[in-house]
Queue: 2 jobs
Job 1
Amino acid sequence: QVQLVESGGGLVQAGGSLRLSCAASGRTFSYAYMGWYRQAPGKEREFVASILMSGGGTYVEDSVKGRFAISRDNAKNTVYLQMNSLKPEDTAIYYCYGSSSGTSAWGQGTQVTVSS
């Protein structure tokens, strides 16, 4: 089974930056689509950004566009989320998601806390 493991979360001051990583481990397999979602306390999980592993097409949610960027390293089967100009409202647990036809998986999440 392919597992997704996030890392890179932490506590940062407003205006700071963090880079999240999501590595797919397990048997040799690559998800065609990978994305980042987040869930703030008391709120539903929401989409942040996505990337197609073949071709690299990306999509970023409007509220983070211009501040967040998603990228991939196919050789490492890893997806990154570069987060700049962080705001307190970006505080959430960030989850990695991967899918291909017939299969999908979520990571365990990594906490991002932005202090004002």
Note: The mean pLDDT is 93.
Job 2
Amino acid sequence: QVQLMESGGGLVQAGGSLTLSCVASGRSIFGRLMGWYRQAPGKRRELVAYISSPGSTYYPDSVKGRFTISRDNAKNTVYLQMNSLKPEDTAVYYCNTFPDSTLNFPWGQGTQVTVSS
């Protein structure tokens, strides 16, 4: 059974930074596209970054230049470094395979990120 465990969220002031971690157990992430997603109350889940197994990355304009995704295949872990945080980044953050589809691993509980103004 695959399990994803996200951690590292918290309350931070606007302009601050957080680093999120996601550890996968039960199956290797090697060779898989991995993404970070977020979901704010009343909104749909959205992609904030994805990374290929060799390390190519993609970011939507909303986070480009502020967020950095990375991975350690040996540790089966994906990271998200978030800088210059804004109140609109407030959401529950999840990691999973990319793209967001019925083929994803079971979703974890996520980690709450709250950015105060």
Note: The CA atoms of residues 20 and 62 lie 18 Å apart.
